[in-house]
Write a structure and sequence with these properties.
This protein is 41% helix and 19% strand. The protein is α/β, with parallel strands linked by helices. Strand 8, helix 9 and strand 9 form a beta-alpha-beta unit. Belongs to the aldehyde dehydrogenase family.
């Protein structure tokens, strides 16, 4: 506790010196991070392999490469984002100028999860640095090799009073949340997110909560089923399903269910071979606790493919469960593993009602050839973000915010939205001292009242 208190105090003192406010300082820190990632690329790949058995292609494509892309995007646009923003001035303030300044909050706490430990630690950090904050970074202890490497990397390039990495488990988390930070950015489960928000409320600390939920994948009878099968299988089983925006369940039109399932089974075999649960290139479940939880869900329906695991390797085969009901155990919580339950609908009205009757999901995916149905779903169903005729890919863009709504979280980030998330928009009115209109001053006159009503209407 004392060490964490000291780190936070030193960061608060460092921030007060004002070094983080300049564009040159922020650019230099972003460049340092990019250089560090490039020089430790193989170590990052090795650590991801040890912690989650991620193959190099997947580790680079879903983590390291995305971080480098984000760094390039932010670095390219940062100077323009930092400029004060000129806005319209109302007539009642004539003559004056109105501007919005982008101030850093101060000291930010970034708490990241284990499933994408590089991406979900460094992406928020890029936003915090770009916006001029100091940061305390808390990676997950469930991915110890990546956590230790990130600590090593950041300590090599940043002094602890600017950016620090705190390792540990629940006790470290509790100690951090008892401190007074200026901003908290948390990625993880809904259950822990509620605790983070409760802790933040004691100091009125603003938060971003990147959570999860049961993200539906809807396939109607007009969809290209072969394309849908490939993209659903890829999005569901990447990282062994341990992805917050993975399709959590498949909601398919009853007319095409059997054909789609045939194509999904064919695609799983084509992608992963006969024994993915014993493959060197298929990610593992993070630990035995989660492995046993997932294996316990297999009885929720009829196994179409998969259903088996290897406890020694902590791996579970890509699984599809048919004949699942909304009351089945697999439908009571976010799965966060390689199990895809299948349910059906008979009309899009029914499908949308089924989704809307449940907590707002982090993502929603819809496969269709009907643009009017697409428009209807986007207007009538609330969710964090998603794709039409694809899965997952909406989150890789630095041009769009990524985040949840309702039970799936609050706030968004990526690109400029990361800069905005870690910035306070400070409104400043600069009034001319050459003219001072008497209209607002007592004693109030009838003429002034009439003039005010003409202006303010």
């Amino acid at each position: 506790m004392k060490a964490i208190e000291e780190i936070v105090r030193e960061q608060q003192e460092f921030f007060k010196k004002g070094k983080t406010y300049s564009y040159e300082f922020r650019k230099e820190q972003l460049d340092k991070l990019r250089t560090s990632i490039k020089s430790h690329e193989q170590e990052l790949l090795d650590a991801l392999k040890k912690d989650l058995n991620k193959p190099a292609f997947e580790a680079y494509g879903t983590e390291i490469g995305l971080v480098l892309d984000e760094l390039s995007f932010v670095r390219r646009h940062l100077k323009n984002w930092m400029k004060p923003e000129r806005v319209h001035t109302s007539l009642v303030n004539f003559p004056s100028k109105s501007r919005i300044f982008k101030d850093p909050y101060g000291v930010a706490l970034i708490m990241s999860p284990w499933n994408y430990p590089v991406l979900l630690t460094l992406d928020p950090l890029i936003g915090a640095i770009a916006a001029g904050n100091c940061a305390a970074v808390k990676p997950s202890n469930y991915s110890p090799n990546v956590s230790a490497l990130i600590k090593k990397m950041l300590e090599e390039i940043y002094p602890a009073e600017y950016v620090s990495v705190i390792e540990g488990g629940r006790e470290a988390n509790q100690s951090l949340l008892s401190q007074k930070f200026d901003y908290i950015f948390f990625t993880g489960s809904v259950k822990v997110g509620k605790l983070v928000m409760e802790s933040a409320s004691h100091n009125l600390t603003p938060v971003s909560l990147e959570l999860g939920g049961k993200s539906p994948c809807i396939v109607d009878e007009t969809a290209d089923l072969e394309l849908a099968a490939k993209r659903i299988v890829w999005g569901k089983y990447i990282n062994a399903g341990q992805t917050c925006v993975a399709p959590d369940y498949l909601l398919v039109h009853e007319k095409v269910k059997d054909e789609l399932l045939e194509k999904i089974v064919f695609t799983i075999k084509k992608f992963y071979g006969p024994a993915p649960q014993a493959s060197e290139s298929f990610p593992k479940i993070v630990n035995m606790k989660h492995y046993e939880r997932l294996m316990g869900l297999m009885g929720s329906g009829k196994v179409i493919i998969g259903g088996n695991g290897d406890a020694k390797r902590v791996q579970i085969a890509p699984t599809v469960l048919d004949e699942v009901s909304w009351d089945s155990p697999v439908m009571q919580e976010e799965i966060f593993g390689p199990i895809l339950p299948v349910l059906t609908f008979s009309s899009m009205k029914e499908a949308m009602e089924l989704v809307n009757d449940r907590p707002k999901p982090l993502a929603c995916y819809y496969f269709t050839r009907k643009s009017e149905r697409e428009r209807s779903l986007l207007q009538k169903v609330s969710f964090g973000g998603g794709c039409i005729n694809d899965t997952i890919m909406h989150l890789v863009s630095s041009h769009m915010p990524f985040g949840g709504v309702g039970n799936s979280g609050m706030g968004g980030y990526h690109g400029k939205d990361s800069f905005d998330t870690f910035s306070h928009r400070k409104s400043i009115l600069k009034k001319s001292s050459l003219i001072d209109m008497p209209l607002r001053y007592p004693p109030y006159k009838d003429l002034y009242f009439k003039m005010m009503k003409m202006i303010m209407k």
